[in-house]
Batch of 4 targets.
Target 1
Amino acid sequence: METTHKVYLQPTPVRIWHWLNAFGIVTLTATGAQIRFPEYVSLFASYKSAILLHNTAGLMVAVSFSLWFFYYGVVARNLGKIYVPTKDDLQVGLLRQAKFYLLTYFLGWPNPHHPTPENKFNPMQKSAYMAIMFVLMPLVALSGILLTNVSPLREAVILLGGLKLLMSVHFLLACSLIAFLFTHVYLATLGKTPMAYIKPMWTGWEEEEPAGKHSHHTV
């Protein structure tokens, strides 16, 4: 009989951040669609209510991002270790992981990466999350802050190219974030069951699969 082992990967602050962030981004996506395309999208009572909810969700995501940064940077003190790719990740790991996702996963081969509390993400995940959390999210937040405070920050808006350019940049950055969201959800369903890699974000515990089985942590 196979013995099931569990590893505690997702501490409570991380799980709280994850779901606050997920709910906030979904809300931002829905309200942003109505704000950008009001003639085609009418999910909310009015254009004004969509803007209000969009701004509120943006604030919530900013707060959850601060929680994430504080926990990993100050409490756990392993932000760089978990999210920044190592030399080996860049030289060997990226290619190895890409080969797994593009080919060997479909042949039933095991994932070359085995998650631990100090090394939760594979090289491709580290690279993607570093770009998202340290570049994309801050830029989306900064452009959003400027757009919600155009009058008091008028000089900064003009310096960055004007309101029209700023709106376009914010929209394109948001589209990039949404594209990642779809990829993230897809990869999170590739466990031995569709919920295998989603449950740890509720319970904190992930089951280690027997050798030879798919075992690629994605959340």
Note: Residues 212-219 have pLDDT under 50 and may be disordered.
Target 2
Amino acid sequence: MVFVLFLFGFAKNAVMPLHSWLPAAMVAPTPVSALLHAVAVVKTGVFATLRVFLFVFGTDAMRHLGSDKFALGAAAVTILVGSFLALGQDNLKARLAFSTISQLSYIVLGAALLTPSGILGGIAHITNHAVSKITLFLCAGSIYVSTHKTEISQMSGLARQMPWTMAAFAVASLSLVGIPPASGFVSKWYLTLGSVERGSTWLLGVLLASSLLNAAYLGPIVYKAYFEEAPDSAHGRIVEVPWMVIPLVLTALASLLLGVYPNPVMSLAGRVLP
């Protein structure tokens, strides 16, 4: 019971059903949303959850109590349901918010695997998800500032008008799906290894299904921007704002750099292993 209260008590980890605060927070200005959804608040929740898993209870106690199975089940449900809910959102920030709910539970799942690779993957995803998701939210802000568009259905042909913004969005999307060389691939690779070490085929299925769902809710945005024609009413001049473009390009490059050279993050994450 104490373990369950810890798991759901850190509501900022957004494990379902205590997740509704996170989509509600998307009404904040985009820089604040980026801070909430990528860096500060949600990462505090999962960091505290991992501290409880690995240091308050520890791997041996979790195995003995069977609490790892409960945590894995809660994380798997959140990953899949969060992804399905993201599919149904036309508002860009709302889709990214439900994506955050799903992605946070990768971290919880990694720790609950109780295997070295799984723990490494979960901890690494704290950083890898942060740089990717902050890029996506900064792109959403850049799109709004330049075009005042908030709905995905309005973004046809946007890559021709905002090439830097949409290129950064595409890179961050590949990272969340888990496509190399972006940083999200590193996290998912270690989570997959952790599932293999645990001998859990159903968790491998969850990871595969979630990656396909990630592609299903992020891919259409990139497709519309690059491969659909903009409506006639949208052919006015749209200019990217340099002070918006510079940070999102830098975070997109960080997502690539952490995928090509993950050693700093992985070595730091490895300090928690026995």
Note: The chain has a mean pLDDT of 87.
Target 3
Amino acid sequence: MCTILFAWQQNSDYPLLLAANRDEFYQRPTAPAAWHGDVFSGIDLLAGGTWLGLHKNGRFAAVTNYREIPLQHQDKSRGALPMAFLNSTQTPEQYCTALMATQHDYGPFNLLACDGHSLWYMSNRGAAPKALAPGIYGMSNGLLNDPWPKVVRGRAAFAKHLQASDDELFALLHDTYQPNDSELPDTGVGIELERRVAPLFIRSEEYGTRCSSIVRLHTNGAWQMVEQSWGPDGEPSGPRRSSI
């Protein structure tokens, strides 16, 4: 998962509304979103775990990687982090606080965890666990609300779509706008790669936006997730999959 836009306690109908794109190599084996026991999520078939999912008992979690050079190899997959929270009984605060002790056993990550009552964020690249205040947020492969073009542009658009349909939110996530080089972050990967991954929706033959997800927490405490997969041409790949 490479970009997550979300509104926390900004909508009378949906205390949490979230729209996200997962960017990955097309050759990496992945199972699309489905129910796996009590968890609805996609599955990374190479390393295990997931990038985003929800539990039928009212829990949600998502993770993005943090881009840095040199890349660090870790024994534990960050995809295990959302799954561990979803299958636990800990509050977001308890889970994130406990994770501090082993956070550097995992690759660079940003993590969101929510139980419907509180929403917590942390990163093992310099962001201690904290409860998020009501607001509109964006997270890509830097820290929360880092002003990358796709995050700034995405948050501004998302703020105008808090009552939007799934179709409208998927269209928002399908934004291929290419920022000017002067706006791009310098994460050490070189300008060519910075350009390639700068749009909110990435298209190329080898690497791109493979799926988009819409997550809604309803006022009655029910969660809903819808996922759409995409091919290298940016066109839908298969039907939408819903937790309902």
Note: The longest helix spans residues 149-158.
Target 4
Amino acid sequence: MSGAAALAILVSGVAAGAINTVVGSGTLVTFPVLLSLGYAPVTANVSNTIGLVPGSLSGVFGYRRELAGQRRRAARLGVASVLGAIVGAVLLLVLPASAFRDIVPAFIAIALVLIVLQPRLNRALAGRRPPGGHEGLATRLGVFAAGVYGGYFGAAQGILLLGILGLALPDDLQRVNALKNVLAMFVNLVAGIVFALVAHVRWDAAALIAVGSVIGGQLGARYGRRLKPGALRVVVVVVGLSAIVRLL
């Protein structure tokens, strides 16, 4: 790996760690970078998932104040996330690589649509949250489905979780976002363990993303609320469109 390639992966890891903490679509930064450097799509996805695990932990630590009082809730919903992540990771490994190349552009397109619609979604959710909240079967099935998606391809799983949790819980968006970070961390961790055991991983790339994502996770937790969401969405959409073009 050349020095320029290593720097590009490291910087993309920083950006992904910050974006994952604040929004939840950092894979749309790191994945296209790995593709542009010549990594096969499945190898890029596997290495990226493993690399983002430390960044997920960093983001959770950064939002620890907002997690106060949510330990039991995180544990209950975390079971659904873990089970979904296992299913998604297994699907990635058992389905042919051609299926991944065919499916992922659609996933990225859906993720980009969700990113664009996020402000409208947040406004809609604000008036529909039940006073007491609930974590019933529908909520757990939604979290499980987001885990399957995240285990297979993690881009925008955080936005899916924000939508699901925002409908189910009465908390403000920052506390919901903190819980989202925990559940996404469970998904990345479980999928990363599966991939590390049985998949082909480019450990040099994963290590660079890991270092960058830890830094980015802390930056996202500290400064992310000061960024203009619109500008951040524009960057993610542009990068995501480049990934679709690359895959097609």
Note: DSSP finds ten helices and no strands in the chain.
